[in-house]
Design brief:
The strands form 2 sheets. Strands 3-4-2-1-5 form a 5-stranded mixed sheet. A 5-stranded mixed sheet has the order 6-7-8-9-10. The chain folds into 2 domains: 190 residues, MutS, DNA mismatch repair protein, domain I; 115 residues, Trna Endonuclease, Chain: A, domain 1 (3-Layer(aba) Sandwich). The protein is flat and about 90 Å long. The chain is built from 9 helices and 10 strands. The protein is an alpha+beta fold.
């Protein structure tokens, strides 16, 4: 299993307004260190006709991509432009670096294979010694029962003194030929210009950033009629605690929405959480922007947020 720390910043590929990650090392690093647990959207090569178990890539929400770019952990690459320009005509330095990267991967793979072979060989030898001891004990007891053995058999039996030379095992190659699953090595280093302009930041980003900063994991909340499904830890270990929905600071909230969200959350053992960025009320431009479905580069993780949780009790 891959466990290496990837080279930072991580490349997030923007493909037709979708933010995708193709490298398993990047996925594992972001899940362990930055609470990113986006769903897999790719097809499994050995089971392409089913949609129960999915594979790489993972699709990031726009909020997840934004928070990673703000932290300097990742950058956005417009795949329709960035990928072909690096692959079609790489310079000599990039090509040599790519070949060296392949050689390093091949050396590591060969070393791991040799280590595994030596472990299996030692394990088999230890088991074989135990079996030989058991056979010797069984043969000794059989000799005692049958009586003394003829000296001619014990002295002149050539089969007992004949030694067989061990066959020379073929030497494993020092470097394996590796076919990379991704083209990440050819696409580094990242572009020098700022890539945050490629982000379409939703109006609810301040609420997401507020929850993310407090250590929560979040996944898309469409299944439960909300914006984000909020977990106190990794979703593989914890049940979600909140179904979060963003509202603008001065936006009117329908009472029916509160009742519906509260009852649904209680039925699935969650609290219905609503929240939004705190506004002074004097800046009309901010309020107008917040009511739009998407706001480009207006929101920030430093925007103060206030949230409330609602539970349905009884009537």
């Amino acid at each position: 299993m891959a466990s290496e720390t990837p080279k930072l910043p991580i490349r997030i590929s923007k493909v037709t307004d979708r933010y995708l990650l193709f490298d398993i090392d990047d996925v594992m690093y972001l899940r362990r260190n930055h609470n990113i647990c986006s769903p897999f959207v790719g097809t499994m090569p050995q089971a392409p006709s089913q949609s129960v178990f999915m594979s790489l890539p993972i699709e990031l929400m726009a909020e997840e991509a934004t928070v990673l770019v703000e932290k300097g952990v990742a950058y956005i690459a417009d795949d329709s432009v960035f990928h072909p320009s690096r692959i079609v005509s790489p310079d000599a330095a990039s090509r040599n670096a790519y070949l060296q990267d392949l050689r390093r991967d091949g050396t590591r793979a060969a070393a791991a294979a040799r280590e595994l072979a030596e472990y299996k060989k030692a394990n088999a030898a230890s088991k074989g010694k135990g079996k030989k001891k058991d056979k010797k004990l069984d043969s000794g007891s059989a000799i005692d029962k049958d009586g003394p053995v003829s000296e001619e058999i014990s002295l002149f039996d050539s089969s007992s003194t004949r030694e067989t030379k061990p066959k020379a095992e073929p030497r494993a190659p020092d470097v394996w030929a590796v076919t990379p699953a991704t083209s990440g090595a050819l696409l580094t280093p990242p572009p020098e210009e700022d890539t945050s302009a490629l982000l379409d930041v939703p109006a609810g980003y301040p609420l997401y950033a507020h929850l993310h900063e407090n250590g929560y994991f979040m996944m898309p909340g469409l299944r439960f009629g909300c914006d984000y499904n909020v977990y106190p830890g990794d979703p593989l270990r914890f049940h979600s605690h909140f179904q979060a929905t963003h509202y603008a600071w001065n936006e009117e909230i329908s009472l029916l929405d509160l009742v519906t969200g509260g009852r649904l959350g209680t039925n699935v053992k969650k609290s219905y959480l609503i929240g939004g960025a705190i506004r002074s009320g004097n800046d009309k431009e901010e309020e107008a922007d917040e009511k739009e479905s998407h706001v480009k580069n207006k929101a920030s993780s430093k925007t103060p947020v206030r949230a409330f949780s609602i539970e349905w009790a009884a009537m």
